[in-house]
Design brief:
single chain, about 80% helix, mainly alpha, 21 helices, about 450 residues
Length: about 450
């Protein structure tokens, strides 16, 4: 018997459903999981969006740039806490349940945001202020890292076989919505408050809003249905998830997820998070114009994701992945090369929109394609851990590597790096089984 035939799901007939699980309960569960994901990513991006306004509170000294750099170093600390959160919460979700893990993840995020919102500055409590800021950011990093595996698994299991790609795409839709919400709130506060007020106390508002939203999501998640995949595995007495199970029983699946996540994460951060800096620092756009162009492309992203999720339900996950990674590998270098010298914001919008549309073929199915590779007893860990490791290694380093190439006077080297990452992911997709025949989520 092979690894994919072991575990609880080998004992469960296809078509098993939760007793009494209505369509309304299923939609409620999907909305609950998605809403939590929105709050998680809103809180995550708010830190970066408002860092310039609160950095002097925690790192004073008269040098605004030095304070901002230290504040963003704390951002990086939170980023590298994400793989740890993915590992711990993945294990927890497989052992205690998806619903329990999702509730725990949003609780951590609420705590981290609330600490930042009410934390006194350096002038009041001295060195304890930056230390507690680091603690809060680590809590947020653990939360975001843990959210992905539990949310991806839960949404994939609750979506239903026929629309699994479409509904699971909303995990990434809400991620982009969280980013847009953070940017939108920044723009609103900039319009309604002067800079002095924002630096004095206004920067605390988005963190208070984030912690309040997390409380609402906690209430919603505490009332969600548990996934039947987890309940079936628990009832069948399947072996409890352990970290080494991934590498001993599912090495191909684990390495495959790491490989195509590396390319997808690199491209995502290159064409979203890094793009405003690229447009201002390389192309020469004004800051507000670069922000508007990037925000417009994110709206296009939102619209493309459900379409590719729906497409994957009809053509299969591999088809949309080929579009994403094949098209992305071909388009990345020329798109970045043109963006670097282009002065027309509409051309920039079109090129970035093209790239995020292509990447939607990956992001729309990134949750479900991973979940379908593992049986229920180890699924959340299998989704979370290789994702967290690849995102920290390639996504988290995308911007520093881009800046390193720029500093060395060879910025086009970064364009090649992104294209090669996507090409690697394209080749790895050949190793994936066809989800229409080999999905390990057996419940309808």
């Amino acid at each position: 018997m092979t690894a994919t035939e072991t575990g609880a799901e080998a004992q469960i007939p296809p078509g098993a459903v939760a007793p009494g699980l209505t369509a309304g309960q299923r939609v409620k569960a999907i909305l609950g999981g998605s809403a939590g994901n929105l709050v998680e990513w809103y809180d995550w991006f708010v830190y970066s969006a408002f860092a310039v306004y609160f950095s002097s509170h925690f790192f004073p000294g008269g040098d605004d740039l030095a304070g901002l750099l230290k504040t963003m170093a704390v951002f990086a600390v939170g980023f590298f806490a994400r793989p740890l959160g993915a590992w711990l919460m993945g294990l927890y979700a497989d052992r205690a349940g998806r619903k329990t893990a999702l509730t725990a993840a949003v609780t951590l995020m609420c705590g981290g945001s609330l600490i930042i919102a009410i934390l006194p500055g350096y002038d009041s409590i001295g060195v304890a202020a930056p230390i507690l800021l680091v603690v809060a950011r680590i809590l947020q990093g653990l939360s975001v890292g843990g959210e992905y595996g539990a949310s991806a698994t839960y949404l994939s299991e609750m979506a239903g076989r026929r629309r699994r790609g479409f509904w699971s795409s909303f995990q990434f839709v809400t991620m982009i919505m969280g980013q847009l919400l953070a940017v939108g709130l920044l723009a609103l506060l900039q319009l309604t408050m002067d800079r002095a007020a924002l630096e004095e106390w206004g920067w605390r508002i988005p963190f208070l809003i984030g912690s309040a939203m997390a409380v609402v999501v906690f209430w919603i998640r505490s009332r969600m249905e548990e996934s039947q995949s987890y309940e079936n595995a628990k009832a069948a007495g399947a072996e409890r998830a352990r970290t080494m199970m991934l590498f001993l029983n599912y090495p191909k699946q684990t390495l495959t997820i790491f490989g195509f996540t590396a390319g997808g994460s690199l491209a995502f951060y290159a064409f979203t998070t890094y793009m405003p800096k690229f447009l201002t620092g390389t192309a020469g756009f004004e800051g507000p114009t670069a922000t508007a162009v990037t925000a417009g492309a994110l709206v296009v992203y939102l619209l493309a994701l459900p379409f590719f999720g729906w497409l994957s339900d009809h053509w299969g996950r591999k088809a949309t992945l080929y579009i994403a990674f094949g098209g992305g590998a071909l388009a990345a270098f020329p798109a970045l090369s043109i963006l670097a010298v282009n002065q027309n914001p509409w051309v920039a919008f079109a090129l970035i929109s093209l790239m995020v549309i292509l990447m939607s073929g990956y992001n729309a199915v990134s949750a479900v394609v991973k979940a379908e590779l593992f049986p229920a007893n180890v699924r959340a860990l299998g989704v979370a851990l290789p994702y967290g490791m690849a995102t920290a290694t390639f996504g988290g380093t995308a911007e520093p590597i881009a800046l390193a190439f720029k500093h060395a006077g060879n910025e086009s080297g970064f364009y090649v790096y992104v294209a090669l990452g996507l090409l690697m992911a394209f080749l790895i997709v050949f190793l994936l089984p066809d989800n229409r025949k080999h999905s390990l989520i057996l419940e309808d």
